[in-house]
Amino acid sequence: MATSLLPPQNDGATTEAAVEFPDNFLLIDLCGEHDRNLAHLELKLGTQILRRGNRLVAIGDPEAATRTIEALRALYDRLEAGREVGIAEIDRELRMGNDPAPAKDSRDGDQYDMFPGGPVEIKTRKKLIEPRTDAQKAYVRSLFANDLAFGIGPAGTGKTYLAVAVGVSMFIEGRVDRIILSRPAVEAGEKLGYLPGDMKEKVDPYMQPLYDALNDFLPAKQLGKLVEEKKVEIAPLAFMRGRTLANAYVVLDEAQNATAMQMKMFLTRLGENSRMVITGDRTQVDLPRGVPSGLADAERLLKQIPRVGFNYFTARDVVRHPLVAAIIEAYEADQPA
User: Fold this and answer.
1) The pLDDT value given to residue 232
2) 163 with 303, same domain?
3) pLDDT of 85 over the 50 cut
4) What is the CATH number of the domain that holds 203?
5) Nearest residue to 163 (alpha-carbon basis) of 234, 108, 216, 213
6) I need a surface site. Which of 250, 281, 282, 305 has the fewest CB within 10 A?
7) Which pLDDT belongs to residue 11?
8) pLDDT digits (tens, 9 = 90+) for 106-125
């Protein structure tokens, strides 16, 4: 790390903490276009950042000023390692910092230590994916460690996105032969009527979020070829009945909309050398009134089984627009006690 921290100047109410960076080109990338990265840090931490040559000065209360300098140094280290720095990376640094790896659970599989002493990251054909919150980091570890993993929490927390990313990574590495992504074809509180077209055209609108995730990780031509060869399948949950899914990475998305019988059917499709991921949001059940959710049923029944991981997210883990977290918290606060 080629930075030096200068002694802080403290007048009691505010502190001036400064750091010098030797590479002016990296410093330009650190600050961002029109200093937008610095402005984002100022907004998040409530400090003022002044740029004086290759020196950045953070002014604010002692804790915030120190945290600003720590964040700047960590982000500069990313640039030195050849990685990009933008708003998403800044938010990730502020959420996580240099948190230690969690202790190994006795139920975890052999792959739990896939990232010993290094960053938790997922390599795909198009980009490198890094968890942005502690819960996401634990989730990625669980996806590599367990034969069956659950990701449960509100929208926007990266449950499906990270699950698909891990599936693509395992496929690229040859650890599985195919990727199978599924969803219940349940309407979200509205009747859409009869859709035109063949079966694929009828169900594709329900599956679009899964296509979106895959397109983020695989080039379009390669993805098209893999779909044609059935090495990547995207199908409604109803199409899973009767299948045995061996040597596959299988994801069930929006699992809160699976009935208890559908969930049992899906879980028992797990074949030799396969991984299965179940994602869902217990607050967005679109099943008919009185029909229990299979996600809640599975959570109740499977918690004590070895090599089954449960990972939970809250509004604090939302990585979409900041308003999404506020909206989720408002709805949660309105729930009866």
Assistant:
1) 93
2) yes
3) yes
4) 3.40.50.300
5) 213
6) 305
7) 54
8) 344 444 456 655 678 888 88
* H helical segments located in 146-274: 159-172, 199-217, 220-228, 260-267
290: region left, alpha or beta (phi > 0 left; psi from -120 to 50 alpha): left
Amino acid at the residue 214: L
User: Using CA atoms in the order 19, 25, 30, 35, what is the torsion angle rounded to 10 degrees?
Assistant: 100
Q: What percent of the chain has pLDDT over 90?
A: 32
Residues 79 and 156 occupy one common structural domain: no
Whether residues 164 and 284 fall in one domain: yes
Task: Retrieve residue 298's tokens.
Answer: 């599975």
Nearest to 177 by CA among 122, 242, 233, 131: 233
User: Does 175 lie in the same domain as 247?
Assistant: yes
What distance lies between CA 85 and its chain's CA centroid? 18
Contacts for 43 with CB less than 8 Å, ≥ 6 apart = none
Angle between helices 159-172 and 134-145 (to 10 degrees): 40
- Report the number of distinct structural domains present in the chain: 2
